[in-house]
UniProtKB/TrEMBL annotation:
Domain of life: Eukaryota
Gene Ontology MF terms in the entry: ATP binding; phosphoribosyl-AMP cyclohydrolase activity; phosphoribosyl-ATP diphosphatase activity
PANTHER family: HISTIDINE BIOSYNTHESIS BIFUNCTIONAL PROTEIN, HISTIDINE BIOSYNTHESIS BIFUNCTIONAL PROTEIN HIS7
InterPro entries: His_synth_HisIE, HisE, PRib-ATP_PPHydrolase-like, PRib_AMP_CycHydrolase_dom, PRib_AMP_CycHydrolase_sf
The keyword DNA-binding is annotated on this UniProt entry: no
Protein name: Histidine biosynthesis bifunctional protein hisIE, chloroplastic
NCBIfam families reported for this sequence: histidine_hisI
Organism of derivation: Capsicum annuum
The protein's annotated pathway: Amino-acid biosynthesis; L-histidine biosynthesis; L-histidine from 5-phospho-alpha-D-ribose 1-diphosphate: step 2/9; Amino-acid biosynthesis; L-histidine biosynthesis; L-histidine from 5-phospho-alpha-D-ribose 1-diphosphate: step 3/9
Gene Ontology terms describing biological process: L-histidine biosynthetic process
Length: 328
């Protein structure tokens, strides 16, 4: 907000004229009518306070040293304050300007669109891909719900507006060329219209082997692929056929063995530090700890995604504070 105290009557008139025309450019307004309602500069018009902000409501004239705010059109004022009232708090205006600046830097295609990909913030899974225009990206930033532009309907749509399976966006990323977007968020339910967790569940390698059969297999990263395998072994332990024997099944069927292995592997991991073993050994022992701990998670019915969510929620909290909160 720019403020000034101006005493010279001629300067007052010039400043008033400038502000009137600025206001006219910002939002169409009859500047002649506005000028007619302002008091003419004179010697008995000793001091004028002027405030200016880029986020305007219509200009108003307030009496100097008065608690009553008059409207434009009161020509009896001799001492006044001319201000541009803020439509929104300064913070909102600043954010709005930053969003506009961001939108200007995206390389939209000739149709004003960019690829928009939704990704699970905890699992890293690619949930879906759509397109976004300026309004869709702006809406996503303000609402924190993944919003896209439908090319077939020529309109915005928010994922979950009919199914309630919204994607709650935590952050938005642009690629190096600024022509594609990632919505990093947490889905409320299945993302795909088929009911699948994600829209990507058809492995190309399987299609190449047998084009006639479409295998339903989610695109999973390493830890989640391991979790899926462990859960399959768990399902086999309760089936009549029981499948092939495996170490995972033995662990699932023997709590004491599982817990002893977790303690053993954790101890061996610590020894790699105490005995200054090489990094490869540390990675190997950590892999053992993760595997056995994930078997325990499966046995307890806890998803790895739940663990990741807990870790994410701790990011903004001091480790000492977090431990103290658990004690209380």
């Amino acid at each position: 907000m720019l403020q000034a105290q101006i005493c010279d009557p001629q300067a007052q008139a010039q400043i008033l004229s400038i502000l009137i025309h600025i206001r006219f450019l910002i939002s169409p307004l009859n500047s002649t009518t506005l000028r007619r309602h302002l008091p003419p500069p004179s010697s008995d018009y000793p001091k004028m306070s002027i405030s200016y902000s880029p986020c305007f409501q219509p200009l108003k004239v307030f009496p100097k040293n008065s608690h009553i705010h008059s409207k434009i059109g009161n020509s009896t004022l001799k001492r006044c304050t001319l201000i541009g009232c803020m439509k929104k708090p300064r913070e909102d205006c600043s954010l709005e300007a930053k969003v506009d600046f961001l939108l200007d830097r995206v390389k939209w295609d000739d149709k004003g669109l960019a690829v928009a990909i939704a990704q699970n913030v905890d699992t890293g899974a690619v949930l879906m891909q759509g397109f976004a225009n300026r309004e869709a990206l702006s809406t996503t930033i303000s609402s924190r719900k993944a919003t896209f532009y439908s090319r077939s309907r020529s309109s915005l749509w928010t994922k979950g507006e009919t199914s309630n399976n919204f994607i709650n966006v935590f952050d938005v990323f642009l690629d190096c060329d600024r022509d594609s977007i990632i919505y990093l968020g947490k889905p409320d339910g299945p993302t795909c219209h088929t009911g699948s967790e994600t829209c990507y569940y058809t492995p190309v390698d399987e299609l190449l082997k047998n084009p006639e059969v479409e295998k339903n297999e989610l695109a999973l990263t390493t830890l989640y692929a391991l979790e899926s395998t462990i859960n399959q072994r768990k399902a086999e332990t309760s089936s009549s056929s029981n499948g092939k024997p495996s170490w995972t099944k033995r662990l699932l069927l023997d709590d004491k063995l599982l817990c002893s292995k977790i303690r053993e592997e954790a101890d061996e991991l610590c020894r790699t530090l105490e005995q200054n073993e090489d990094n490869g050994r540390t990675a190997s022992e950590m892999a053992d700890v993760l595997y056995h701990a994930m078997v325990l998670l499966s046995l307890r019915g806890v998803k790895l995604e739940e663990v990741m969510q807990v870790l994410r929620q701790r990011f903004s909290k001091s480790g000492i504070e977090e431990k103290n909160s658990r004690k209380s």
